[in-house]
């Protein structure tokens, strides 16, 4: 007999089906939990599913199936409901048996083999290394980290990856910004700092490091720097033309810096990249988010994959030339317009390197590829999937999970998060303010593509309204009970669970039994928030039980049974919080 109630019920239904309709004995059987507890513990819609092919009324077919169900000590009763559902009510012993499984399996409870050890690549965060991670990046980090753990629990062989955009214009702007701050620190009458460059204090910090290590290495005549540069518009202007003029001046300054610094430009560029990437890696590690691979965009150019990828698209007829540039026929794959992959000056676009990056992912042999992108990248999906199809690859291997940025609030104040302007709240600052546990939990408390308001005051409060505190408090309460009990936890598997008879205890046991299904559903839907929701409900039910019943009663058998129930609650909370990257303190 299967230990999993759903599997066991499916076996019973299959046996009944072989008797009632042998020709349909291979039909798919779906066992689900009803939304209302009054409808039983599990429900099956097989009678409605087969009614047409068998030519029977669904309710009559359901009754026939029930009459042919083999006896099972796990089933208290079964009944026909609605249009033809078969509802199952489990026996108390069946509901309580899960407690023994939890105590025996420990940290392994909730894991499955659904993924079959197939290889999946999850790429997330991948923020430009042009400044500290801000609170918006934090949500993608928390979501991606939890998703990797979820998929691992569901039996997938998971590789986590950060794509380092180290070959594009933004890194050039950061290198230029640092150089100009270096000149500014060296000479009071230096070149005016461009309004479109990176403004943050971290840029000055890097410039100070450079100046201390190399006082004159990067100095150049000021006249040579500013001579002949395009003029800037009025600072008060905010229209598109003015914005373009500012960007044009920035590009001219980058070109001038590369010319004047020569080989030193690469040294400067590598310095700022190394500094910011190290800071990013350290911040993520301190947040409990770890990456197996840090993949360099520049490596795609170094091995010639970008050029080969573009030529492959060209030979297969998916490119055309217009105004000197090479365009990908993205509209043929559902995109709103065609996209440039190589500019008229010969430089490849970011889209070209992104196509090559995805080709590389496929060539590494992953059976499933998941990209975690910001919600503002929604329009980018059709062109990437189109390019994958154009390369002759299966686009269904790629899945994209969209994450809305979080908005930070404190007493109604809303923080801005622009990296170039320097006006943003860093992820590190947020963690120092509310703690790592609150950060990780609050970030996954909503579906990833839904807007998230991060309430700092709530995250710091020690109240029942703070979900992470409420769940951790349930875990700590059980630890306190076990300490007072003083027995050996390993012996709880032998407890007489039949002594647990109260509605609170049976409901709590049923809730614990849902955990493996919650994990499996959350993994299949790429939805860690389902685990967070479950843990909130589990904690609420335990607190209600704790307040309604004494656990350490005088009756030894009843006491041990109740301690076993509490210990199972602790284990499941620990397992669920581990998926979300949140700690479980033993005292609070």
Number of helices: 22
Text of the CATH class of the largest domain: Alpha Beta
In total, how many beta strands?
A: 15
Helix content: 40-55%
Largest sheet descriptor = 5 strands, parallel
Report the radius of gyration as a whole number of Å: 30 Å
The span between the termini is 42 Å
- List segments where confidence is low: pLDDT < 50 over at least 5 consecutive residues: none
Strand content: 5-15%
Q: State the strand order across the main sheet.
A: 7-6-5-11-12
Q: Please, what is the CATH homologous superfamily of the largest domain?
A: HUPs
**If classified by CATH, what would the architecture of the largest domain be?**
3-Layer(aba) Sandwich
CATH topology title of the largest domain? Rossmann fold
Which overall shape is indicated by the principal axes computed on the Cα atoms? Answer: globular
Question: How would you characterize the overall build of this protein?
Answer:
The chain has 588 residues and is of the alpha/beta class. It folds into four domains: 5-90, 2-Layer Sandwich (Gyrase A, domain 2); 119-162 and 282-403, HUPs (Rossmann fold, 3-Layer(aba) Sandwich); 169-278, no CATH class; 464-580, Isoleucyl-tRNA Synthetase, Domain 1, CATH 1.10.730.10. The chain is 51% helix and 12% strand. The chain contains 22 helices and 15 strands. It has helices spanning 5-20, 46-54, 58-67, 92-105, 135-153, 169-186, 201-213, 222-226, 240-261, 263-286, 297-302, 305-315, 350-363, 380-390, 427-434, 436-443, 456-460, 467-485, 503-513, 515-524, 529-548, 556-580, and strands at residues 31-32, 42-44, 75-81, 85-90, 119-123, 157-164, 293-296, 319-322, 325-328, 339-342, 368-374, 398-403, 406-410, 413-414, 452-455. The strands form four sheets. Strands 7-6-5-11-12 form a five-stranded parallel β-sheet. A hairpin with a 2-residue loop joins strand 8 and strand 9. Helix 2 (46-54) packs across helix 3 (58-67), helix 4 crosses helix 19 (503-513) and helix 6 (169-186) packs across helix 10. Belongs to the class-I aminoacyl-tRNA synthetase family. A motif ('HIGH' region) lies at residues 127-137.
């Amino acid at each position: 007999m299967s230990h999993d109630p759903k599997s066991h019920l499916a076996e019973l239904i299959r046996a009944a089906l072989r008797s009632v309709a042998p020709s349909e004995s291979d039909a798919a059987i779906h066992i689900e939990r009803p939304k209302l507890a009054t409808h039983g513990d599990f429900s099956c819609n097989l009678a409605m599913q087969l009614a047409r092919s068998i030519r029977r009324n669904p309710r009559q077919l359901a009754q026939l199936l029930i009459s042919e169900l083999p006896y099972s000590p796990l089933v208290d009763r079964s009944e026909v409901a609605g249009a033809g559902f078969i509802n199952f009510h489990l026996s108390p012993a069946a509901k309580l048996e899960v407690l023994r499984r939890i105590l025996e399996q420990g940290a392994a409870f909730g894991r499955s083999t659904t993924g079959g050890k197939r290889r999946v690549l999850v790429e997330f965060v991948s923020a430009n290394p042009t400044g500290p991670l801000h609170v918006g990046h934090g949500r993608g980090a928390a979501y991606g980290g939890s998703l990797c753990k979820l998929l691992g629990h569901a039996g997938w062989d998971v590789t986590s990856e950060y794509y380092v955009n180290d070959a594009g214009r933004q890194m050039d702007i950061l290198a230029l910004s640092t150089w100009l701050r270096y000149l500014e620190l060296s000479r009071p009458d230096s070149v005016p700092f461009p309004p479109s460059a990176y403004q943050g204090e971290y840029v000055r910090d890097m410039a100070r490091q450079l100046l201390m290590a190399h006082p004159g290495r990067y100095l150049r005549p000021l006249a040579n720097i500013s001579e002949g540069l395009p003029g800037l518009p009025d600072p008060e202007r905010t229209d598109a033309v003015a914005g373009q003029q500012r960007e044009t001046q920035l590009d001219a300054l980058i070109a001038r810096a590369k010319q004047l610094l020569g080989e030193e430009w690469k040294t400067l560029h590598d310095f700022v990249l190394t500094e910011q990437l190290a800071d990013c890696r350290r911040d993520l590690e301190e947040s409990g988010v770890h990456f197996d691979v840090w993949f360099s965009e520049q490596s795609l150019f170094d091995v010639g994959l970008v050029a080969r990828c573009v030529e492959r698209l060209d030979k297969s007829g998916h490119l055309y030339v217009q105004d000197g540039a090479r365009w990908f026929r993205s509209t043929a794959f559902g995109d709103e317009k065609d996209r440039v992959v190589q500019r008229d000056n010969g430089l490849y676009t970011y889209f070209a390197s992104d196509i090559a990056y995805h080709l590389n992912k496929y060539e590494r042999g992953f059976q499933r590829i998941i990209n975690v992108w910001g919600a503002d990248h929604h329009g980018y999906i059709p062109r990437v999937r189109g390019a994958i199809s154009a390369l002759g690859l299966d686009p269904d291997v790629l899945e994209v999970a969209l994450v809305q940025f979080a908005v930070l609030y404190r007493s109604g104040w809303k923080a801005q998060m622009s990296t170039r302007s320097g006006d943003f709240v860093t992820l590190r600052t947020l963690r120092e303010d509310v703690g790592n546990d609150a950060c990780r939990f609050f970030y996954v408390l909503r579906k990833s593509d839904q807007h998230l308001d991060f309430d700092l005051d709530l995250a710091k409060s020690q109240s029942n309204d703070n979900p992470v505190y409420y769940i951790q408090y349930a875990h700590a309460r059980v630890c306190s009970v076990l300490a007072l009990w003083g027995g050996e936890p390993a012996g709880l598997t032998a407890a007489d669970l039949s002594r647990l008879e109260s509605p609170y205890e049976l409901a709590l046991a049923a809730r614990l039994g849902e955990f493996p299904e919650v994990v499996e559903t959350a993994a299949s839907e790429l939805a860690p928030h389902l685990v967070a929701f479950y843990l909130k409900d589990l904690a609420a039910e335990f607190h209600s039980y704790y307040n309604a019943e004494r656990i350490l009663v005088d009756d030894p058998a009843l006491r041990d049974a109740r301690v076993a129930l509490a210990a199972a609650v602790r284990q499941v909370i620990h397992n669920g919080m581990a998926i979300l990257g949140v700690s479980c303190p033993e005292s609070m």
